Amino acid sequence: MTDSVSGTAGAPITDDAPATEAGGRRSVPFRGGGFAPKPVWYVAPLMFVALVLLWEFGSSNGYISPLVLPAPTEVLGAFSDLVRSGMLAKHLQASLTRLVIGFACGATLGVLVGVAIGLYSIPRSAFKPLVAAIFPIPKIALLPLFIIWFGIGEGSKVATILFGSFFPMVIATYGGIDAVDRNLIRMGQSFNLSRVAIVRNIILPSALPAILNGMRIAASISIILLVAAEMIGAEYGIGAYVLLAGNLMATDQLIAGVATLSILGLIVSWLISLAERYFLRWRA
Amino acid sequence: MDLEIRNLSHHYDKLEVLRDINITIPSGQVVCVVGPSGCGKSTLIRLIGGLEQPAEGEINQIGEPPQGSLNPLTYIFQDFALLPWRTVEGNISLVLEGHPISREEVASRIANVLDRTRLSDFAHVYPKQLSGGMKQRVAIARALAVNPAVLLMDEPLSALDSQTRELLMDDLVSLWERERFTACYITHNLNEAVRLGHRVVVLSRRPGEIRETVDIDIPLSERKVDSPELARTQTKLWEMMREEALTADRQLADA
Ligand SMILES: Nc1ncnc2c1ncn2[C@@H]1O[C@H](COP(=O)(O)OP(=O)(O)O)[C@@H](O)[C@H]1O
Ligand SMILES: [Mg+2]
With pLDDT > 70 as the criterion, what percentage of chain A qualifies? Predict the structure, then answer.
């Protein structure tokens, strides 16, 4: 066959054809690969530094008006003022207390209700539609109600965070339980394991990845709600600080506060990653 | 302990799956059940072990399970059913935890079954680190740990490649030689059936009915891979099944 092809008259081989050895032998062209983006560790910090440098350059050369956006050095100055005056610690303490109490209570209750929905018919029928109806309501819209119910003080702020983290945890938990491999449950029953043992040793561990994933979402929602709640009648708290800075048009302080929130979010997400790496080390 | 299945029929809603099954599983013997896929083999073994209730008929245990048996009817599953978050050792201790036995006894039972299945070096390894064949060995070790009266195996080798299957088949034969366990062994693989079964029950396509029961008198240890007698039996079984398999293949899953 090779002979007849290469010998065909009037069909000269073009220049860009693959290298042809004598006898028409060519290497098979590679067509695979790609479609597999990999994280390159140094790109993100480089990108961040470049952005800040560009921003500083723009500010110091007058391309960016200080009214629109303060220079990074000014933001840094505002931040170091915040640290040196000891106010950062005060704001953070207030915010973290609310966040931890609200999130811990919301997540715990959410897991409990999620487990009940995942395991029993009556709670499932009762709560699943209720959760579906309340989850999409922005909890910020309910804040005035919470203030009436729980007072303008800590109560309404913690309640907002609690509600915000409760619903995603419920949904993640029963979703995880619904997805448990039936065969593993059957295995447990076939060895006469008690109901409690099946829940503890089979159902909860297999729902754990979904629960941790739910915590990630619930934590982000909690931080968003924290700031919203602190914007109403809070003396201390990162949210209150940001609000005050905004009212005074102190954009350098505003950005310092927002950056603190961003760092807080990153730390929370990192902590959850640590928990995942520890608790889910059995995962393939 | 013998198991006796009498006049067993089963259906899911309107789907008739099993019809009038009668099988006796005598103590110390391996009864293989073969049949085309979808004919109700898995349903049958779930019924035998009490994981589902039969629509009609009964399943009886005759005689007492051996002394110290923690779970007389014990399964070995096709997909191994190991908990990925527990080590080999933890997977075995799982099925011992609810029983009134001391910590020392649990530890010694685990060591014992790991030794019998030649898994002692892998006690602290997670399932994800093991090959399919090793996972199934762990499942076998777990089943042995509760001292079963009857092993109920649903296509235990079907998820494995053919080389691993040969190795595990040899393991099961030598295990039987040593322990003379009683088993109901479901498979669609006729070669496994003639290598491991003292008796082979052939089911028809769905609804599964018993078409034939074939006793194989050659001792398990003497059944060589290339034995002509086994090959004859296997061919005979295939002739019985061929027609059924052909029709079963064209059967709708939900009809
Ligand atoms: N829990 C169930 N509900 C409804 N139908 C089922 C159920 N389990 C099995 N079936 C049906 O019963 C038939 C026999 O299934 P199965 O026992 O798994 O067959 P086999 O193991 O021989 O391949 C199949 O048609 C299957 O779809
Ligand atoms: Mg099956």
Answer: 92
How much is the mean pLDDT over chain A? 91
Under 8 Å between Cβ of B132 and B167 = no
| Alpha-carbon span A52 to A265, nearest angstrom | 20
Q: How many domains does chain A have?
A: 1
- pTM, entire model: 0.87
Summarize pLDDT for A216-247 with one digit per residue, the tens. 999 999 999 999 999 888 889 999 999 999 99
Measured between CB atoms, which of A190, A194, A205 is closest to B75?
A: A190
Q: Chain B closest CA to A245's CA: distance in Å?
A: 49
Please give, rounded to a whole number of angstroms, the shortest distance from the CA of A177 to a CA of chain B: 15
Is residue A5 very low, low, confident or very high in pLDDT (cuts 50, 70, 90)? Answer: very low
Range of the domain at A269: 95-279
Please name the residues between 111 and 170 in chain A that touch chain B, using a CB distance below 8 Å: none
**Which pLDDT band holds residue A12 (cuts at 50, 70, 90)?**
low
Query: Contact, B40 vs B100, CB < 8 A?
Result: no
Contact B95 A191 (CB under 8 A): yes
The CATH code of domain B2-65+149-254 reads 3.40.50.300
Q: Which residues of B touch A184 (CB under 8 A)?
A: 81, 83
Mean local confidence (pLDDT), A62-72? 90
Nearest to B73 by CA among B99, B106, B46, B110: B46
- Nearest one of B8, B105, B97 to B55, comparing CA atoms: B8
Q: Is residue A40 part of a domain?
A: no
The verdict on residue A110 lying in a domain is yes
Among B18, B32, B33, B42, name the best residue to mutate to test ligand 1's pocket (greatest count of ligand atoms within 8 A of Cβ). Answer: B42
Q: Is B130 left (phi over 0), alpha (psi -120 to 50) or beta?
A: beta
A78 within some domain: no
Domain ranges of chain B: 2-65+149-254, 84-147
ipTM field:
0.93
Ligand 1 contacts CB of residue B253 (under 6 A)? yes
Which residue numbers in chain B have pLDDT < 50? none
